[in-house]
Amino acid sequence: MSEEGETEVIHSWSAPRSLSTSLMYSFAQRDDTEVLDEPLYAHYLRVTGVDRPYREELLSKMESDGNKVVKNIIYGPGKKNYRYCKHIAKVRLPGLSDDLTKKGKHFILIRNPIDSLQSFDKVVPSSFHELGLADLVSVYSELSASGNPPPILDVAHLQQHPEAALRGLCEDLDIPFQDSMLKWEAGPKSVDGIWAPWWYKSVHKSTGFVQPVKYRPPFPPSLYDVLEQSLPFYNMLKSLPRSTRFPKIPTPSLPVATNEKILVWVGDELLPRVNAMVSVFDSVVQGGDSVWEGLRIYNGKVFKLEEHLDRMFDSAKALAFNNVPTRDEIKEAIFKTLIRNGMFDNAHIRLSLTRGKKVTSGMSPGFNLYGCTLIVLAEWKPPVYDNTKGITLVTATTRRNSPNNLDSKIHHNNLLNNILAKIEGNNANADDAIMLDKDGYVSETNATNIFLVKKGIVMTPHADYCLPGITRATVMELVKKEKLVLEERRISLSEFHTADEVWTTGTMGELSPVVRIDGRVIASLNPEITQHRHWNGERDGS
Fold first, then answer.
1. For 64-123, where are the alpha helices, taking DSSP H only?
2. Angle at which helices 327-341 and 305-318 pack, to 10 degrees?
3. Rounded CA gap, 135 and 139, in Å?
4. Any residues with CB less than 8 A from the CB of 202 and at least 6 apart, and which?
5. Please, how many CA atoms are within 13 Å of residue 108, restricted to the half-sphere of its CB?
6. Rounded to a whole number, what is the largest CA-CA distance in the chain?
7. Domain F5/8 type C: where (predicted)?
């Protein structure tokens, strides 16, 4: 018994056919635990009027006043340290005492409905209500609102790694693990509810947790609608931070913590980050078939918005996109996203327009019959480079795409060419990698345009192999305003190695001074150019 002389109650909440009975048997093997099989079931049948083959017998033998059950049975005196109560979430009906959820320890057991629906349907015709995953989410929300978000255990982990999953659950519940929880004898149990002959035939054959069936029978189309309705609730619970996983994977920290709770525009609506997804049939998934722009927000304004939209529409036209949203529709999505996120400065948008969803997988744009998919991903994001200390570059062996293969003026999402170069930069512990064209001249870095200064002359590569960047064009205009000599031409790598000054330009990183290329230190004879005195005014619109 506990120090207070009271039995501590552990509540298991689940949907039907979630191995909840197996887990009840597991806890029943403990020498310090007594178990109750769905103590509120009679109350549920009485209040709802739901029909079951065993309804009359159950109502005649079980207490059907839910509040009496909570007070006298669930939280009544006990003979052991712990009382394990197995609950199906939908039995938590309005009018029950708050003590049910405010007292005791709670955890949630979840199972993918694609694995549970067929089993459930053999006993009771399946429906969204009968499966009760929405009720399970409601239980989680109520417990979380009280300041005690419950642990979540996925049946898949329990089946694959029973000991580790049970140890993790016991740790979350702050109770000792016992080896006895891993095995039990086959056959009916004294703790079984009256409904056992209808529901427990399979579990009565078990003696422990077994590996899941590798190949299940075909999923019946008749259950597809219920699956489609229920799966989002399972996925939501599965994604929650208190999910008991094995092996336990630490949640990675975000570069900017506030980006954990952002709203993302996908298609025609704003969605929480965790729900912001595109279809597996979308062209961006099928083949990177999408165009994009990077936008920065300064002092309540989107920098060079019209120029970015011009380029996006040009790219979409070059790729022969159909059913493209209008300029006003895209602007409205951008502004709604920024306003709802409260982002008016120091933010960055990844604006993507995919060719859209296909009716079947395949390369042909003829399968794209749904129209384009618009994505507005706004994040709190300072410049990605250290523009005070400067950045280092190395030269990649990966060459920049030739216009003979894929024109860099199309701002497309298929960035493998750049990513391969970035991998080389990462492996060399550099900030980025310079990419050469097919003839060995510098084109750009994997992520930015590039400039050099030599004897007062500012130079940048032709936009033949590189993207003609918006920030690049802005800097070129500023250089001309300063009445400096500007050359746009082919530039060899050695000219960058021996430059007086080098900097990169891009929406993500703004203007970034380069201090080292391939191990060569780059002098900075004219810092006024890199830290251009008109740049801040230009970006802020002043």
1. 66-68, 99-102, 113-121
2. 130
3. 6
4. 119
5. 34
6. 98
7. 1-67
